Structure formats: C-alpha cells, structure tokens
C-alpha cells in the first residue's frame, strides 16, 4: 500500500496548483509575447476576422473596428494569383499549418510584406473551426532581396546591417559570404562557420531535406519557397532557421552561387510547440486528450491495415469516482486522478498510449499486440494496480475500475467503430456491477430483454398517452421572481410504475419515437401556457427541449408555427432548448435556428460548455439564452476551474447581449457566487424540483399575492 505523508500530500497538491498556475501563466506569456512581437489575427472557418491585435492595426493602418467582421480580402494587394490563395486554403482546410510570404495593401494604399504562419484549430471531426495567423513584417527583408539583385554592393551594405543571416554558398554548399549577423546566431562557433560547409551545421535529420532544397533551386534557376530546418552548434544548441534561397546566375545563365536569407525562428517554433501541447493535452494529468488520441488511433489503424497487424482500444472508467469528489472535494479528486494516470502509464509499454477524455474517463491504445491474451494481461495488471489503496490527506481510498475492450480487426476496421464498441463493452461491465473488464462480443450489441420491453411499452405509451408533463421553475436571482418554467416529460407506466427519463429517452432517440413524443410535449406545453394566461396569470416563457433528431426534421419550422397557431400562444412565450451537439453541423443548423427565431420564438443553448460550441463562434449563432451546464455549477462554489469557466461564459454572454441561466443550482453557496458574478437567472433543486402544473399554479398565485 502506498501511503502519502502530509509533506508528500502537500507537495502533490502544490504541484497540481503549480501546474495549473504555470499553464495559465504560459498562456498569458505567449499572448503577451505574440502581441508584442508579432501581427496576430484570429478568423473563423470562413476567414472572417474575429480578433486583431495592435500590431495588426498598426501595420495595416485600419482600426480594429474596421478589421473585425471583414476577411483578408480587405488587404489584398493583387500581387498573388488565385492559385496561390487556393493552395493556401486547401492546406489549412485540411487541418495543416500553412507558411508563406504575403504582400498586403494597407488602408493608405501602401504595400507591405509579412512572413505568415496560419495554424488551423480543428474539431472532433477534423474540420477547422478557426484559424490563428501569426505574421511578422518582412518588408525590409523583401526590399533587401530585390535590391540585392540590382546591385551587389548595395546588397552587401544592406546585408551587413540586417538582423537576418544572409549567406552566399557555392553549388557544393561551401560558404562564400556570411553577413555579420552570423555572430549573433552562432556565438562562439561563428569563427568556424565561415570556412565550413553548410550541411556540416545542419541537423543530421534535416540534411537530406536541405540537400534536396538546394538541388531544386539549382535545377529551377529561380527563387524557391521557404524552408525550415534545424542547425546544431558545437555547443549542442539547436536553432530553427527559416530560409529562402535565390540563385545567382553567371553570364551564361548557369547557377554560380546561392543566396540564402535565414531567420532564427526558434522562439516561434517553441511557441507553436507550446500551443500544440496545450491544445492536445489534458492540463491536470498532462496526458493526451480526446483529439490527440483519436488522431493517433486513426494512424495506427491505417498501419494495422497496411501490415495486417492487431491493435486494441480500451475504455476505462474509475468506479464511483463522483462519490470521492462529492465527499472529499475536487482537490483530493484531482490528486487521485493524477495518481491514476501515473499508475496506468506504469502498466503500459513504450509505444502504448493512454489519454484522459475528461472526468474519470481514460482511453488506452495498444498497438502491435500479439492477441487477446496479451491485452487480457495488461487489463488485469491495470486493474490490480488501481486497486492498490491510495492514502490522501490521512484517509485511505480504495479504488476500482471498469474497462471495455475492442480489438482490431475482429471488432471493427475503423477507428470510430472500435471506439464505439469499446464503449459498449465498458457499459456492459457497468451494468454487470462494475469492477472488471470485458472484451466486445456481438451479444453486447444486441438489445437486452429490458430494452426490448421498454421499447414495446414506449410505443404503447404513445398510443395511449401515458405521459404527462412536469414543470421546473426558473427564477430571477436578483428578485426571486418566477420568470419561466421548463417542460419535462414523465412516464407513469400502469404496471411498471414511474420510469425515469434517462431510461426511456435514449430508447426514444434510437428508435425515432422522440420525434412524435417531442411534438406531443411541445403541443401540450403551449396549450398549458396559453391556459395559464387565459386564467389571468401573468405571462411567462415556457421552454421545451428539442432533440437532435427532432431538430433536423425537414418540416420542423412549419410544425412549430402550426402548434402556435392551433394553441393560440404568442411566439414570445415559447423557448426551444437545443443541445450543443446540434452545432456539429453548424452550416445546416444556423438557417433552421434563424427561421425559428423569425417566428418570434426564443432559442436557448442547453448544457453550454460541454459540446461543440465555443466562444469563438457563438456570436454568429441566432440564439437568445445560454444555459450553463450543471456540471460547472455543481462545484462552482469551491473549484477555481469551474469558476473561471462560468465567469468566461457570463462575460461573453454579456458582450453578445445574451441572457444566461445557470441550471443545477442546489446550494446557497452556488447561488451567492452566481449572484455576485452577475448571472441573471437560475434553475435547480435549491428553488424547486420539477413539479406538476397544479403546483406551478400555486406558485403563481403566491407571487400575485
């Protein structure tokens, strides 16, 4: 049994806090460094500018207000061909980093050159949702290159005063000339550089790349594209150089020498590596996140198909981990998660991958396995290792885990299929009682008797209307006034009794019954709200959830219009709640949302912060309200990460003039935090659980009194 002393515990906790603090500081430092040294712009997936720093405004001579909302055609100088931009968009649209030099036109008509790096950020489907452009003004360098071709003497003067390293080499790669700046680049090694061969200094892994680059310039007899490569000094220091090569031709048109203009981009490469690491790793455990894991899995599946090998995917959940967080707090939970990650890694080989998906969920990739027996041994080793007691803060915690396993190619030949079936196997273990592991087998995919029974009874319930609606009130936090209610379907079976929504809603989604059920809920909620108004109660908005399947019905907008007309409810008193998963298909979703809003109906994003939407493009969505997911509210009174997320949501909502409601409010401390941060509305058991319409009427009467 591993026992942590108080000193070790304090050390672990401090390390966790230090890591989080360091990550935040690194991000702040990166932003500061970029703002101070580079031209920075952020665009959405269509190229619309969403952010421009001061450097961007200064060089373009446009104000920030003039740039935001425009695309980069506002800067188009007409210098580059359509093929140039077509190649650039093809590269970044494929999720790859693009680097190049662009000539832009400023507002006053002057031209300037920028060395550009465009980094795409992609969603879980591999599609870019925004681009970060880092540019540096290279106008002087471009001017220097042009003047160098016109006058060697003038070129030499400029070269000797340029911060970039300018070198002339012969066709064999031996240095003929080096600008004085080489002393800044190579320091104590500068004396040896002048009489040496270029490849002598190039990193051994990049020598073939550089050799081919020089051959390409000599063969084409024209300026080549930018090349990045590494050089290694005698002291072992590695520098990243960004290089542009130009041939010098003799009177016969043959290549005599090559001019290389090299810039030290080591710091930029370090920024890129830091940004990449933060984007693709979990901050608590430093493990790969879902995006990086899926990318690695797809590559390994490709290799397994090519070489006809086997691999395994494992889904792992820590059993009843929520009880640890609820009982002992998230700080203890975070220490335990970090230790769990460490223990899992200790059970794996050098080429195996473990990632944290979030919470207590981990995934494991085992490439190049010999068979199921090997996977069985690894799973058993992980299980035994996690079962070893862990002492935190003087209290012993006994852990267990559940694992589901899928093997390529027996259980699937695509990454998504393997992930899905490993997940199925995991839930099979959970339904069986947890604390174990199971390989996927076809019977897992078959429906259980209970599921078949529920599906049949669900169809009967639709025919006989065994459903009813409860309403959960929404309150204005400042005044305590009831301002709305959410309509929630309930099922009382005549024989099976009350069936919880989390049992029958997934079946309704899978079978398509959610569409008629959802329409029934919408009609009944509108009828009830209109009835309350007819009885003289002050009008308020009733919200109804729309499932993804229901949302993408071809006639959804007409159905909503028809129900409003049939019930006589004015559109402003209806709110439709949609989940973030709808925005996986943003291009299709936005026109539907806009059509619904054109009716006068309000739109709310449910469970905000857990799915596909992000701050970067929520401003483009036709919505009225953001509902902060209960998972962030649950510990907002004591968890700094949750507090930061909630503050960020409230800030962006205020900026975009969106209403915000916090769901899952259960404690006075949570309410106090939300009120202090300016959240307008709340919903949760602290105020009221979902209640029948009669109790809603009681609340309305009390409010009037």
UniProtKB/TrEMBL annotation:
Gene3D superfamilies cross-referenced by the UniProt entry: 3.30.70.270, EAL domain (3.20.20.450), PAS domain (3.30.450.20)
Domain PAS, first and last residues per copy: 26-70, 151-221
Residues annotated as domain GGDEF: 309-442
Annotated PAC domain ranges read 98-150, 225-277
Q: Does the keyword Coiled coil apply?
A: yes
* A Pfam family: EAL
Annotated coiled-coil positions are: 134-161
Which keywords does UniProt give here? Coiled coil
Q: Does the keyword DNA damage apply?
A: no
CDD domains recorded: EAL, GGDEF, PAS
Using the record's annotation, list all stretches that form the EAL domain.
451-704
PANTHER family per record? BIOFILM ARCHITECTURE MAINTENANCE PROTEIN MBAA, DIGUANYLATE CYCLASE DGCP
NCBIfam families according to UniProt: GGDEF, sensory_box
Question: What is the name of this protein?
Answer: PAS domain S-box protein
Instruction: Please name the source species.
Output: Brevibacillus aydinogluensis
């Amino acid at each position: 049994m591993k026992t942590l002393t108080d000193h070790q515990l304090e050390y672990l906790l401090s390390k966790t806090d230090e890591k989080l603090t360091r990550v935040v500081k690194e991000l702040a430092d990166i932003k500061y460094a970029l703002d101070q040294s580079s031209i920075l712009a952020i665009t959405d997936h269509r190229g619309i500018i969403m952010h421009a720093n001061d450097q961007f405004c200064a060089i373009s001579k446009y104000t920030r207000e003039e740039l935001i909302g425009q695309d980069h055609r506002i800067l188009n100088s007409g210098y580059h061909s359509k093929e140039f931009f077509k190649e650039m968009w093809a590269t970044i649209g494929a999720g790859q980093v693009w680097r190049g030099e662009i000539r832009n036109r400023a507002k006053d008509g002057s031209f300037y050159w920028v060395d550009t790096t465009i980094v795409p950020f992609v969603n879980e489907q591999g599609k870019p949702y925004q681009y970060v452009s880092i540019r540096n003004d290279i106008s002087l360098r471009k001017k220097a290159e042009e003047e160098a071709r016109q006058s060697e003497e003038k070129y030499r003067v400029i070269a000797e005063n340029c911060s970039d390293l300018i070198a002339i080499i012969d066709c064999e790669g031996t240095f003929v000339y080096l600008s004085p700046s080489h002393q800044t680049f190579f320091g104590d090694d500068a004396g040896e550089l002048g009489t040496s061969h270029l490849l002598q200094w190039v990193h051994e892994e990049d020598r073939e790349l550089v050799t081919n680059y020089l051959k390409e310039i000599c063969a084409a007899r024209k300026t080549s594209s930018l090349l990045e490569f590494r050089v290694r000094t005698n002291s072992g220091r590695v520098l990243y150089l960004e290089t542009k090569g130009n041939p010098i031709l003799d009177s016969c048109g043959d290549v005599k020498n090559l001019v290389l203009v090299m810039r030290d981009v080591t710091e930029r490469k370090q920024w890129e590596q830091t940004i990449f690491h933060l984007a693709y790793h979990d901050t608590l455990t430093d493990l790969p996140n879902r995006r990086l894991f899926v990318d690695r899995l797809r590559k390994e599946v490709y290799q397994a198909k090519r070489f006809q090998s086997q691999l395994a995917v494992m889904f792992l959940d820590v059993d009843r981990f929520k009880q640890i967080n609820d009982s002992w707090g998230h700080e203890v939970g975070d220490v335990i998660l970090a230790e769990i990650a460490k223990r899992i890694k200790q059970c794996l080989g050098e080429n195996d991958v473990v990632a944290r998906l979030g919470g207590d969920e981990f995934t494991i990739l085992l490439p190049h396995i010999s068979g199921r027996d090997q996977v069985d041994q690894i799973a058993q080793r992980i299980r035994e290792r996690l079962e070893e007691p862990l002492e935190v803060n003087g209290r012993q915690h006994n852990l267990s885990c559940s694992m589901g396993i899928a093997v390529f190619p027996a259980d699937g030949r695509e990454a998504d299929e393997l992930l899905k079936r490993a997940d199925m196997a995991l839930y099979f273990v959970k339904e069986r009682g947890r604390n174990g592991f199971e390989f996927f087998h076809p019977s897992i995919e078959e429906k259980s008797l209970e599921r078949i029974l529920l599906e049949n009874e669900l169809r009967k319930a639709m025919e006989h209307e065994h459903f009813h609606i409860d309403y959960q009130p929404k309150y204005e936090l400042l005044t305590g006034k009831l301002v709305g209610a959410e309509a929630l379907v309930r099922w009382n079976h005549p024989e099976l009794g009350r069936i919880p929504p989390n049992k029958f809603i997934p079946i309704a989604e899978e079978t398509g019954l959610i569409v008629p059920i959802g329409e029934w809920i919408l009609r009944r909620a509108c009828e009830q709200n209109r009835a309350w108004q007819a009885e003289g109660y002050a009008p308020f908005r009733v919200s109804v959830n729309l499932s993804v399947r229901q949302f993408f019905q071809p006639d959804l907008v007409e159905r909503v219009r028809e129900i409003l007309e049939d019930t006589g409810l004015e559109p402003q008193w209806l709110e439709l709640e949609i989940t973030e998963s709808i925005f996986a298909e943003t291009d299709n979703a936005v026109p539907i949302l806009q059509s619904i809003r054109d009716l006068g109906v309000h739109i709310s994003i449910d469970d905000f912060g857990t799915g596909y939407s992000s701050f970067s493009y929520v401003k483009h969505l036709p919505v009225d309200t953001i509902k902060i997911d209960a998972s962030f509210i649950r510990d907002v009174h004591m968890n700094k990460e949750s507090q930061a997320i909630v503050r960020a949501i409230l800030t962006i909502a205020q900026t975009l003039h969106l209403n915000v409601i916090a769901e899952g409010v259960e404690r006075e401390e949570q309410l106090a935090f939300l009120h202090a941060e300016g959240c307008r509305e709340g919903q949760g058991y602290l105020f009221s659980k979902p209640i029948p319409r009669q109790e809603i009427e009681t609340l309305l009467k009390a409010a009037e009194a």
